[in-house]
Amino acid sequence: MSTTAQDTVPRIELTRKGFITNYPPYRYWRPETAQRLLDPKPLNIYVHTPYCVQRCAYCHYKTTTLNENRKAEIDRYVQSLCTEIQLASKRFHLKERPTHSIYFGGGTPTLLSKENLSRIMDCLREHLTFADPEITVEGEPVTLIQAKADHLKSLGVNRISLGIQSLADEIILKTGRRDTEKHAFKAIEIAKGTGAVVNVDLMSGLAGETDATWAYTVERALAADVHSLTVYKTELYANTEYYAGIKKNTLELPSDDEELKYAAYAIEQIEAKGYLPVNFFTFTQGGGHMQRHTTSKWRGDDIYAFGVSAFGSIGSFSVQNISDLEKYSSTLEAGELPIARGYHLNAKDLMARDVVLGMKLIHLDRKAFRQRYGLDLVRLCEPMVNALVEEGFITVSDERLSLTRKGILWGDYTGRQLAAAVDAVAS
Ligand SMILES: C[S@@+](CC[C@H](N)C(=O)[O-])C[C@H]1O[C@@H](n2cnc3c(N)ncnc32)[C@H](O)[C@@H]1O
Ligand code: SF4
């Protein structure tokens, strides 16, 4: 005999008793949960500098070069940043929250004058509450001179991230940058001398790369003995010189297979030297020197982003500032916040975001996911999890889902597949 839909629907006893005042009922409510509400939530800060020495051939970021003297323009931008910090702090009560990390990104923040760096930092100190924050500054080697590094140290900067990309001079030359291996090593020594944690960015798959040039870059980067090494896959974007060169048939990039081979080689060499992955593109000595800002970002913690085109996320909102420099400043001069657009993540979006960004941190905590959403991720999208295990991208334990070496190499593939499965199940 076959079962009908009626057989499977539980019978509901008809009763007028049991008035519902709350869900879930009081018996589940705890004092420690109330305390969690009262505790101020940690805050992370991003500050954008849109200026660069040059426009690198591969770079897609919204930046502008400094060909002529633009001191007045930069001073105006820094004034706008300070106004934004003041307005946002008041509007969103940012001073009530402990600031755990500050990230000066770009562009090239090390291009800012000592005076302007001090002005921004003074403003942050006045309108935020510093809780012994990790303070990172991104920089290009040619811009990190000793006096600038000493100044960064005096401002409390404790992490310096240098864009090196390649240590083979002939490859760097093709990107339009003015750095050389010599500049890079000088900058690394200066950065280390400040006592800060030093990260070096490399890019696998730059134009002209060969097995020999890449092996040289990796070998020299390891010889630099920095705390942290980041290997980005070169991504091709329409707003770059690389893209224009490919369209005109004047430039060729390494194929996807070659790029994958370079990335695999770098990971093998880096791990052999005792570096461990802390996310799928950054490796730190012994897995230490955790990067608080990036880790917070991939965990979906709050990041307030200041500056032109800067994007951040507060609660379940993602927001981005105005992308036009003139409009950014004039909006602030009129006393308004320069937020241009936003997205409100619904419950399903938040779940998918936790998966796609969380997977970047190599391990995704099943318990944390269950606590947040009341669902077990593995049971929620079992066929996809099984397929990813079978194809060798992840391993699964009771505690977590972890990327394998293959998963690390394929970047966001795993996160994207899992997030799509979460999205499909929850639809
Ligand atoms: C915003 S830049 C800041 C660093 C600094 N401006 C410099 O270039 O020295 C941060 C990093 O993004 C990476 N990057 C830029 N364009 C990229 C692309 N098209 N694909 C992959 N990584 C890229 C580079 O490794 C760069 O060091
Ligand atoms: S890679 Fe760095 S220096 Fe080059 S254009 Fe991009 S942000 Fe500027």
Kindly describe this structure.
One of its GO terms (biological process) is porphyrin-containing compound biosynthetic process. Residues 37-277 form the Radical SAM core domain. This is Coproporphyrinogen III oxidase. Belongs to the anaerobic coproporphyrinogen-III oxidase family. HemW subfamily. One of its GO terms (cellular component) is cytoplasm. With 427 residues, this protein is an alpha/beta fold. It has 2 domains: 43-297, Aldolase class I (TIM Barrel, Alpha-Beta Barrel), CATH 3.20.20.70; 347-427, Arc Repressor Mutant, subunit A, CATH 1.10.10. 43% of the residues lie in helices and 21% in strands. It has 18 helices and 17 strands. It has helices at 5-8, 31-38, 71-92, 114-127, 146-154, 169-174, 181-193, 211-223, 241-247, 256-272, 292-299, 325-333, 347-358, 366-373, 377-380, 382-390, 405-409, 413-426; strands at 43-49, 51-52, 64-65, 98-106, 129-139, 159-165, 197-204, 228-233, 275-279, 282-285, 303-306, 311-314, 317-321, 339-344, 363-365, 394-396, 400-403. The strands form 4 sheets. A 9-stranded mixed β-sheet has the order 9-10-8-7-6-5-4-1-11, sandwiched between helices. Strands 12-13-14 form a 3-stranded antiparallel β-sheet, with no helix packed on it. A 3-stranded antiparallel β-sheet has the order 15-17-16. Strand 12 (311-314) and strand 13 (317-321) form a beta hairpin. Helix 3 packs parallel to helix 4 (114-127) and helix 13 packs antiparallel against helix 18 (413-426). The longest helix is centred in the N-terminal third of the chain and has 22 residues, at 71-92. The model has no long low-confidence stretch (mean pLDDT 94). S-adenosylmethionine (SAM) binds at residues 52, 58-61, 105-108, 138, 140, 163, 165, 201, 203, 232, 234-235, 237.
